[in-house]
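Saturday, quiet lab. Running sequence design on the structure tokens for the scaffold JK sent over.
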């Protein structure tokens, strides 16, 4: 047997090894103190096997958590009928008895634990009373009291373990609920983004279909093949619009009202900042670089990012001021929303309030960071690549 295997066995069966060691120590104590005052009157041929039989039920504690330690006290009381001095004389049996009382108190079954307490108390009083000579009331009370304290210690640790397990279960349940809520929030945000982008894409496809139709009508008769090809393109465009409307209808909540307001863009930031300022959060806007027309989807997403950042600052961060920076670059758009409110640890945007921002940035292959600023406050920073797809 290698050393690792021996270590593993010792860790798994340390209690059984300890009980065996206590039993051997008791046998040795009997052999050495055979002629001492208070020694058992029966022969070693009875006492040594009796100790082995007495501790043997404790080796079955894993399979019989109640019967094992309970049988120990029953056997100890029975041995007191045969030789009242055997159990009191062997000191190591007291240690084993304390361990057995602890195990009875540590039982998860409250009824079994209560029955165990009765066995511990009754058997100890019986064993002490059976000792030859007159026993004082303090002896009858104090000796069993030590084992009752061991039982109470087992009960305390059991309750503590149960509370810890209950806390772990609650934490695991809360984590599952958080993950479920996050998945729902992501699904809802994706549906919202899809509904918003539908209007942009539907408008673009509608313009394409109308232009194709106009060109088709202007073609002369000798270009019949070209006219038929354009008719196919026009038909495909109209089919795409129909399918998009069906898809949007499937995603739309029945309780949600249809909005006929045009989708906003960065050109509507002034109105947004005025609205937030009236709500109690003064905001300053900084624009770096020369503004240029953005793709409609990017323009809408940029507006929503600023809107979400200011909403978080207004509702959750307890901020008194905020700054919005929009930085135009050749191939990307940077947006930063900074406030002086209560900052939190750096995050990847998994908070429910930032789900929409994260999903919008993900659509365009951008980057996002949200967390506490070095000088205090909270910063939401995003980068939206334009991929040379400027209108």
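Result came back. Writing it out in full:
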């Amino acid at each position: 047997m290698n050393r690792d295997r021996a270590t593993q066995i010792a860790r798994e069966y340390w209690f059984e090894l300890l009980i065996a060691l206590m039993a051997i120590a008791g046998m040795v104590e009997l052999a050495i103190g055979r002629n001492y005052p208070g020694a058992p009157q029966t022969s070693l041929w009875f006492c040594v096997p009796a100790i082995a039989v007495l501790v043997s039920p404790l080796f079955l504690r894993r399979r019989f958590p109640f019967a094992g330690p309970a049988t120990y006290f029953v056997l100890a009381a029975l041995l007191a009928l045969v030789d009242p001095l055997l159990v009191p004389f062997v000191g190591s049996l007291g240690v084993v008895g304390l361990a057995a009382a602890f195990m009875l108190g540590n039982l998860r079954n409250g009824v079994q634990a209560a029955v165990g307490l009765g066995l511990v108390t009754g058997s100890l009083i019986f064993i002490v009373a059976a000792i030859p000579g007159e026993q004082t009331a303090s002896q009858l009370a104090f000796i069993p009291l030590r084992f009752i304290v061991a039982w109470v210690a087992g009960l305390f640790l059991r309750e503590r373990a149960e509370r810890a397990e209950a806390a772990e279960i609650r934490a695991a349940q809360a984590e599952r609920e958080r993950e479920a809520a996050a998945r729902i929030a992501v699904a809802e945000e994706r549906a919202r983004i899809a509904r918003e982008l539908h209007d942009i894409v539907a408008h673009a496809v509608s313009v394409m279909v109308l232009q194709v139709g106009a060109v088709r009508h202007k073609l002369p008769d000798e270009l019949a093949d070209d006219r038929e090809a354009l008719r196919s393109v026009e038909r495909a465009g109209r089919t795409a619009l129909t399918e998009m409307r069906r898809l949007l209808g499937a995603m739309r909540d029945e309780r949600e009202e249809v909005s006929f307001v045009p989708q906003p863009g960065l050109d509507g930031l002034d109105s947004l900042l005025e609205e937030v300022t009236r709500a109690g959060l003064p905001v300053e806007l900084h624009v770096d670089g020369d503004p240029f027309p953005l793709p409609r989807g990017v323009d809408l997403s940029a507006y929503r990012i600023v809107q979400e950042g200011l909403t978080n600052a207004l509702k959750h961060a307890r901020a008194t001021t905020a700054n919005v920076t929009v930085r135009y670059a050749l191939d990307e758009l940077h947006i930063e929303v900074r406030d002086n409110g209560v900052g939190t640890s750096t995050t990847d945007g998994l908070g429910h309030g930032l789900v929409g921002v994260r999903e919008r940035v993900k659509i365009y292959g951008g980057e996002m960071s949200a967390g506490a600023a070095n000088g205090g406050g909270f910063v939401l920073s995003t980068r939206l690549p334009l991929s040379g797809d400027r209108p």
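Notes for JK: The chain has three domains: 3-135, 183-251, 266-385. The domain at 266-385 is CATH 3.30.565.10 (Heat Shock Protein 90). Ask whether to fix the surface positions before the next round.
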